[in-house]
Design goal:
Length: 614
């Protein structure tokens, strides 16, 4: 028992996190890797048998994990983003859903050879585009904010709505089979309407309680995250007792309410939950895929394969075309949304339960529900996972693939650094709170952003114009440290830099804590005053392309050259820091940005940067 448990933990958690790392490192769809691991550990090698090992608790445990995922997804649904892409989101969630259901049911009946009852259930399940698949894909792709909002809102909102629709269809079929339609309209339908309204109310009420407790400092910081997760699970479980599927809606509404009530401190808590969700998603995908029986795979007949192709190439594209007729969406957005619709955990979980109940009720083709849904999930995850980025790039719905740098603080020398990068065709964004400081950069065509990056509005504005690295370059060392600490979860600790606060303030014990600041830009002696003084003496930033002859030892200063960073096209930006354990080497073809003194005819007496410090 202990050995099998250890093997299970190794396969699920160890391999899951390893797959997430590989996906991040090599920019691959993590979901596809997790799905493949589940097939290998389950039907392939027979190492994992989750439902047999865990028993009747397996499905409830999966349901609770899904509740955490949809709750965290609800936290990302800010109504201000809805206003930015409102018409498209409304059409995808209200208009497209019934069309998708009808077309999916017709395809299941005429192509997959399912009876009408089972076909209607199949159509109701495939309307779900799971956030467990969509959100990880969006994290690895720099989509335009509008296109990303379409996919995010559709996935998160359709998840509970699709689950409730599938429950409704299932109850109608069972009621018609056992009692006739009269009982459904007299009892089941009113119960579902009341349960849906209760789910919305029950989801919103705890959010107001959370805001009351947080704003009045009535909750310990240590308890905030456990309390939110516990409340999400309680809301989910309570509403599921009222009606199957209502718990997903309540958990989503709870997350949405928290996101839009502007509860203080939610940004930090949301990042903690995002990390938890990565682990939960990794485990769930491996477990659910590993739980597939080989008999399910053996029932993948030609009609099921034909049905999968019909869903991919007919149902979804035609649904989006009809739902967006007369809308303001561009043809590129319509083509993109018509193809990208990966299904995930909720579809698999609903199919397993619903298929079993239909089979017990005597529906002839009910045993084909699970393989049919599995085929759609596998095909959409693989095809959509690998094609999302190339298709978005082809349709010009992505931002630049080149690594981008944000510079906070528009001083004369930081503006010159931005100009140098811009002229070298390196994506750069200059950020400041004062429009006058940005005016010169804007006239030169350099992208600018007027915002306070420590505010929620500023952080959201920065997310709409994503950068990969950040340099805080204001004269205030404390403010620079605050910017770096605040944006570390967004950029990563190794990608936020600040101008040195001075050698004396970098003492590990008495100086600025490393957790409260970014990495030092350049050497500790390169403080703001030194760079400003050199710039005043005529030093300027220059972009140099490294040749084969120059590459060896180029990263070391030669003469009075101060190297700040180097750029490797399409790969990375290396920003020099004395705190790097292993500085990156410079290769031929790299672009090096260095601060150089004026030409000899223009040089002052202070050519040596070390003598410029008083």
């Amino acid at each position: 028992m202990a050995v099998s448990l250890a093997i299970g933990i190794l396969c699920v958690l160890g391999a899951g996190v390893a797959a997430q790392w590989c996906a991040w490192r090599f920019r691959l769809p993590a979901i596809v890797l997790l799905f493949a691991l589940g097939l290998v550990f389950g039907p392939g090698l027979g190492i994992l048998h989750p439902s047999a090992a865990i028993g009747p608790l397996f499905r409830p445990a999966v349901s609770l994990a899904v509740a955490i995922i949809v709750f965290e997804g609800g936290l990302a649904l800010d109504f201000r983003q809805w206003r930015a892409a409102g018409e498209g989101v409304l059409r995808l969630t209200v208009v497209a859903l019934p069309i998708n259901w009808g077309l999916g049911a017709c395809a299941a009946h005429y192509v997959g050879h399912l009876d009408w009852g089972t076909a209607l259930l199949f159509g109701s399940i495939i309307v779900v585009t799971g956030p467990t698949v969509v959100l990880p894909l969006l994290r690895h792709t720099k989509l335009h904010p509008k296109a990303a909002a379409f996919l995010r809102w559709e996935a998160i909102l359709n998840d509970p709505v699709g689950a409730i629709l599938a429950t409704l269809v299932l109850e109608v079929l069972l009621a018609h089979s056992n009692y006739g339609p009269e009982r459904f309209f007299a009892e089941t339908a009113p119960h579902m309407i009341v349960a849906t309204l209760l789910a919305i109310v029950i989801g919103m009420a705890p959010a107001y309680l959370v805001r009351f407790l947080f704003e009045r400092d009535l909750m310990s910081e240590l308890l905030k995250t456990p309390m939110l997760i516990a409340m999400a699970l309680v809301v989910f479980t309570g509403c599921n007792l009222i009606m199957d599927g209502a718990g997903l809606m309540a958990a989503t509404v709870f997350g949405m309410a928290l996101a839009n009530l502007r509860v203080p401190g939610m940004a930090e808590l949301r990042r903690i939950k995002e990390s938890l969700v990565v682990l939960v998603v990794s485990a769930l995908f491996i477990l659910l895929t590993a739980d597939l029986q080989r008999g399910v795979l053996e029932r993948l007949s030609l009609p099921i394969i034909g049905l999968t192709l019909a869903v991919l190439f007919v149902v979804r594209p035609l649904c989006i075309f009809l739902a967006t007729l007369g809308s303001s969406l561009t043809w590129q957005e319509r083509v993109f949304l018509g193809w990208i619709a990966p299904r995930g955990i909720v579809a698999a979980a609903v199919a397993g339960v619903a298929g079993l109940r239909l089979k017990e009720a005597g529906f002839g083709s009910a045993d084909l529900i699970t393989p049919a849904i599995f085929a759609v999930i596998a095909a959409t995850m693989i095809l959509h996972g690998f094609s999302l980025r190339p298709l978005a790039r082809k349709l010009k719905l992505t931002l630049s693939d080149e690594r981008a740098l944000a510079i906070v603080g528009a001083s004369p020398w930081s503006m010159d650094l931005a100009r140098c990068l811009h002229e070298a065709e390196v994506p750069v964004l200059l950020v400041d709170t004062y429009s006058g400081a940005l005016a010169g950069a804007a006239r030169a065509g350099i992208p600018t952003l007027r915002a306070e990056v420590l505010s929620q509005e500023g952080e959201e504005s920065l997310e709409e114009r994503p950068a990969d690295y950040l340099i805080a370059a204001t004269p205030d060392a404390i403010y620079n440290g605050m910017v770096c600490a605040h944006l570390t979860p967004y950029f990563g600790r190794q990608r936020v830099f600040q101008v040195s606060p001075g050698v004396s303030r970098l003492d590990l014990y008495r100086g600025l804590s490393r957790d409260a600041r970014g990495k030092v830009l350049g050497d500790p002696a390169w403080n703001f005053g030194l760079i400003e003084r050199l710039f005043g003496q005529g030093w300027r930033f220059v972009a140099l392309t490294v040749t084969e002859a120059d590459a060896p030892g180029f990263e070391h200063e030669q003469g009075n050259r101060l190297i700040f960073l180097s750029v490797r096209r399409g790969t990375a930006i290396w920003i020099r820091s004395a705190e790097d354990a292993a500085p990156a080497g410079i290769a031929p073809g790299d672009i090096v940005v260095a601060l150089l003194p004026p030409l000899p005819t223009e040089a002052s007496d202070h050519d040596d940067p070390t003598t410029a410090v008083t």
